[in-house]
Amino acid sequence: MGWMKDETGLEKNAANFVPLTPLSHLNRAKQVYPDRLAVAYGDHRVNYAQYHERVTRLASGLTKIGVEPGDVVATLLPNIPAQVEAHFGVPACAAVLNTINTRLDVSTVAYIFDHGEAKAVLVDSALLPLAEAAIADMEGPAPKIIEVPDAQAGISASGKHLQYEDLIASGDADFQWIFPADEWESLALNYTSGTTGRPKGVVYHHRGAYLMTMGTLVSWQMGPQPVYLTIVPLFHCNGWNHSWMIPIVGGTIVCCRDVTASNVFDAIADEGVTHFGGAPIVLNTLVNCAPEERRDFDHVVEVYTAGAPPAPATLAKVADLGMNVTHVYGLTETYGHVTECLWQNDRWASCDDAETAAIKSRQGVAMPMVEPVAVRDSQQTDIDRDATAQGEIQLRGNTVMKGYLKNPEATEEAFKGGYFNSGDIAIQHPDSYIQIADRAKDIIISGGENISSVEVESTLMAHPDVLLASVVAMPHEKWGEVPCAFIELKEGAAEDADGLVAFARERLAGFKTPKKVVFETLPKTATGKVQKFELRKRAAEL
Predict the structure, then answer these.
(1) DSSP structural state of residue 416
(2) Coil, strand or helix at 362
(3) Quick one: pLDDT band at residue 527, thresholds 50, 70, 90?
(4) 298 vs 316, residue with greater confidence
(5) CA-based nearest residue to 126, from 163, 74, 76
(6) Which reaction(s) are listed as its catalytic activity (predicted)?
(7) Which of 36, 82, 254, 408 is most solvent-facing, going by the fewest CB within 10 Å?
(8) N- to C-terminal Cα separation, the chain
(9) What is the distance between the alpha carbons of residues 506 and 490, in angstroms, rounded to a whole number?
(10) Domains recognised in the chain with CATH numbers
C-alpha cells in the first residue's frame, strides 16, 4: 500500500537512511557550538568541545574495563555532571544505560543489578554503602564499581574503588563512537514501580529518545540557548530525556544535586535558568520557602510539572514568583511526558484565576511525538468526550517502550489492543483534553516517586502480629500523597503503630514507609477481598 508501481533503485542506503539516535545531538553540538557552555555545576563548567571529549573518554574508558556492546552500565548518582555525561558516554560505546533510583532500598537495588545484569556501576561516594550492600545481596556476578566523589558538595572518595576522573583520564580522546546500526537497538533500561512488588525493567530504543527530544523542543518552543535546571531526577525516565535534548539548541544544563528552594532560586538568579521540570512538591517548596531563600530575577521561567495536579492556590502563587507552569503527563513506559496541557491563549486569555487553574490542572493533549490520546472503556470503545464518562488512558507512538525486560507476559498485557494501557483512569473534555479522574488504583505517588502498595503491604504482613494489611494513598500537603496503612491484628496482639513503622523502615526505603497506621477490622467484599475504595475515603478524611 502506498508504493509506486515501479520503485526499482529507490531502496534505503547509507546516503538516505541513517538510524535515529540522540547521540547525534551532541556530535552536532560539538561542531556548531564548541565554545558554548554545555554543563554547569558550581566550579565545574565545560563547553561543548570539552563535554564531547569527556563523553568520548568515558566511552573509551568503559570499553577498557571490559564493557562490551549490549552490556548494561548502571548508575547510582544524583543530578551531577557524571550522570549527564553517562547519558552520552554509555551509549557511545554501544552499552545500555540503567540509571537507578537513589532512594531505593538495598534489596531492590540488588534485584535491579541482578535482573539488568549490570557490568559496571557509577556510584556517588555518598551512596557507596547502598551500592556495596546491594552487591553483597546479589545472586549473580557483581558490577564493577566506579566511584564518583563530589568535591562541590564536599563529598570525598573512599579510596576503595576506581575513581570516575581516573576512568575519564584513561580513555582515548579519539575513540570512535559506536552508533546504532538499527534505531531499534536498546539505549536505556529504566525500572518502574509496578502494582506488584518487584519493579519492571522498561527498555528504551534510540529512535524513541530521538523523537522524544525533537517533539519536546517543538512543543515547548525551547530556544535559542535555553538554560535547563535538572530538578527531575535523571533516574526518572532519564530526566524526561532532557539531557539528550538540550545539545540540539546549544543550551546549558545546570546540575542541581539537592533540590532546595535556595538552590533553585540561586540557579535562576546566577545561571539564568529558563526552564525546569519537577513534581508538584517542588512548586510547594518554592512558594512556601522563607523570604531570605528567594532571589529576584527578571525573566519568566517555564516550569513543567507532572504527577498529581498542583492545587489552584499553588499555581497562582507560582505565577506570582515569575514562573509559568505547564502540566504534563506520562509514564516510565513512554519515556516520560507525552501529553501536556497546551495553553491556548486565543481561547483562554479572559479566564479568571480559578478558571485558569482548573484548565491548567488537566493532563491535556498528545505532544507531537505520539499519536492522539485514546481514552477507552473496558470494551475498547472510545468514551464520550463529555467531561463525565471515564475510561483508561491508552497511548501509542514511537515513544512507547520496546517492552519489559525478560517479562513477555507483562509486555503482552501492557500492549493489549494495540495500545499501551496506562492503568490511569481519565475523563475527556469536548476539546479532547484529558484529565485524570483516578490513578492506577494501587500506586501511591509521593513527591514524584511511585510506591507500590503491594510491596508495602507485603512488608507489613511479615510482622508476626499482623493478620491483614492494606495500604492506600493518604493526601499530604507537602508530598501530595503518602502511604497510609490499615492493619488488622492477630488475636491478642497489642496495637503498636511506632513499632510497625520501625519494622517497615528497616525493610523499605524511607519514602515507602507508612506515615499513618490505623488499627481496625478491614472492610471486605463477600469473597473476602479488601474494599480499598472504602479505605481511600477514610484515609482522605484522616
Answers:
(1) G
(2) coil
(3) very low
(4) 298
(5) 76
(6) 3-(methylsulfanyl)propanoate + ATP + CoA = 3-(methylsulfanyl)propanoyl-CoA + AMP + diphosphate
(7) 408
(8) 60
(9) 22
(10) 371-438 (2.30.38.10), 443-541 (3.30.300.30)
Based on DSSP, count helices (H) and strands (E) in the chain, helices before strands: 18, 26
Cell of 174: 579519539
- In whole angstroms, give the CA distance from residue 366 to residue 351: 23
C-alpha cell at 123: 556510584
**Over the stretch 347-400, which tens digit does the pLDDT of each residue have?**
999 998 878 888 988 899 999 999 999 999 989 999 999 998 888 999 999 999
Residue with cell 532500598: 105
Contact residues for 4 (Cβ-Cβ < 8 A; gap 6+): none
Nearest-angstrom CA–CA distance, 138 and 144: 13
Secondary element (H or E) of residue 88: helix 81-92
Name, in order, each residue with C-beta under 8 angstroms of 461's C-beta and a sequence gap of 6 or more.
Answer: 468, 469
Rounded Cα distance, 61 and 58, in Å: 5
Give, in order, the Cα–Cα distances in Å from 370 to each of 39, 215, 334, 419.
29, 9, 9, 11
β-sheet with 252-255: strand ranges across: 44-47, 37-41, 252-255, 227-230, 275-278, 301-306, 323-331, 336-340, 365-366
The strand pairing partners of 427, in sequence order, are 435
Nearest Cα to Cα of residue 100 among 133, 122, 84, 82:
122
72 burial (CB, 10 Å; 0-12 / 13-18 / 19+) is: buried
**Residues 326, 319: contact at Cβ < 8 Å?**
no
Query: 280 preceded by cis ω (within 30°)?
Result: no
Please state, in angstroms and rounded to a whole number, the distance separating the CA atoms of residues 54 and 46: 9
* Mutual angle of helices 280-287 and 261-271, in 10-degree steps: 80
Q: Mention every residue, 6+ apart, whose C-beta is less than 8 A from residue 64.
A: 170, 171
- The DSSP symbol for 536 reads H
**Grid-cell match 543489578, residue found:** 113
293-297-301-307 Cα dihedral, nearest 10 degrees: 10
pLDDT tens for each residue of 444-457: 888 888 787 777 88
